[in-house]
Amino acid sequence: MSIKIDNLTYIYSANTPFEKKALDDVTLEINDGEFVGLIGHTGSGKSTLIQQFNGLLKPTSGDVYVNDINIHNKQKPLKEIRQKVGLVFQYPEHQLFEMTVYKDVAYGPTNMGLDAKEIDKRVKDAISTVGLNEEIYEKSPFELSGGQKRRVAIAGVLAMEPDVLILDEPTAGLDPRGRDEILDELVKLHQELGITVILVSHSMEDVGKYVERIIVMDKGKVKYDDTPKKVFNHIKELESMGLGVPQVTYLMHELKDKGFMVSNEVTTIQEAYDEILNIVSKDVRL
Ligand SMILES: Nc1ncnc2c1ncn2[C@@H]1O[C@H](COP(=O)(O)OP(=O)(O)OP(=O)(O)O)[C@@H](O)[C@H]1O
Fold first, then answer.
1. pLDDT tens string 21-59
2. How many domains does the chain have?
3. Which of 5, 10, 11, 48 for a ligand 1 pocket mutation test, highest count of atoms within 8 Å of Cβ?
4. Cα of 128 to ligand 1 centre, how many Å?
5. Which residue range or ranges hold the ABC transporter domain (predicted)?
6. For residue range 154-188, what is the model confidence (pLDDT) as tens digits?
7. CA end-to-end span of the chain
8. pLDDT at site 10
9. What CA–CA distance (Å, rounded) separates 208 from 145?
10. Which domain holds residue 267?
11. In 3-state terms, what secondary structure has residue 57?
């Protein structure tokens, strides 16, 4: 499923003294099956943009196409688009409200009018996809750990079988282990189910490790849209936007400045670590 945003501007409280342009003539396309990071300093427009992807907000001007259908032209009900483009808000566990985990995950598919057998299958599949098991079905969401709650909330969106999954800061407030576990689950989801994943974050460190493409937002505009490696080359500009680059990228640049042979083939953070190990092992003798 592809999403296209065409010359989109969004103004909050338009024509009032409080009006605020949150998106300024944004054009971009998310292709089917991509794993994309959406990065930007606080207030850069990320949350506003992702709410355009599934029609939760209507553009002040410009268009949104999902699979080439203009979603505001009423050819397709927005409800259907929202099931296909699943949005996991920041701290989604705040929206858990049923008595049991099973009922919470079943909420979305039940609202879709599916039969009981299909709902049961989807709930069980979704819970297992996020790395939890049947022991959790009858637990109250309120007795779970932070990481478990987050997984249950993601399962609730997955049970609607979206083609695109958008997550707004999915690791916020989790400890490093919880953070890595959630990100690893997302990579699995993307690889095994072929779901398009859009990961919203402040952290280049988190996102750079996992995604194939990074879109950097700044003051309501798309500043960069490229592979992590190419985006990380703009160290100074990213710093001036209040964003850093992964530590390993600084190290690579310093090694290059000091005359070490650094391969131009390095594209991922893992490759950068391997390259540094390679350089160090050649140059340091005990
Ligand atoms: N409901 C609203 N009413 C008025 N202005 C808003 C509203 N929501 C957001 N804004 C403003 O729009 C701009 C973009 O906000 P947005 O929440 O999209 O940014 P963000 O990059 O997601 O920030 P964060 O990382 O803090 O979530 C900001 O200047 C913000 O103050």
1. 999 999 999 999 999 999 999 999 999 999 999 999 999
2. 2
3. 48
4. 34
5. 3-244
6. 999 999 999 999 999 988 887 888 888 888 888 88
7. 54
8. 98
9. 27
10. 246-286
11. coil
**Do 192 and 258 reside in the same domain of the chain?**
no
The answer to whether residues 232 and 260 belong to one domain is no
How far apart, in whole angstroms, are the C-alpha atoms of residue 226 and residue 205? 16
Cα 237 to middle of ligand 1, angstroms? 22
Atom of ligand 1 minimally distant from the CA of 20: 5
Ligand 1 lining (C-beta closer than 6 Å): 12-13, 20, 22, 40, 42-48
Closest residue to atom 11 of ligand 1, CA basis? 22
Please tell me whether residue 226 adopts helix, strand or coil conformation. strand
Residues 240 and 258 in one domain: no
pTM: 0.89
Q: Residues 234, 279: one domain?
A: no
> Do 271 and 162 lie in a common domain?
no
283 lies in the same domain as 199: no
CA of 43 to the centre of ligand 1 (A): 5
The CA radius of gyration of the chain, in Å to the nearest whole number, is: 21
Query: What is the DSSP annotation of 69-131?
Result: EETTTTSS-HHHHHHHEEEE-SSGGGG--SSSHHHHHHHHHHHTT--HHHHHHHHHHHHHHTT
CATH number of the CATH domain containing 10: 3.40.50.300
CA 48–ligand 1 middle distance (angstroms): 7
Give the rounded percent of residues in the chain with a pLDDT score beyond 90. 51
ipTM, two decimals, is 0.98
Q: What is the pLDDT of residues 108-124, one digit of tens each?
A: 999 998 999 999 999 99
Three-state DSSP at 13 gives coil
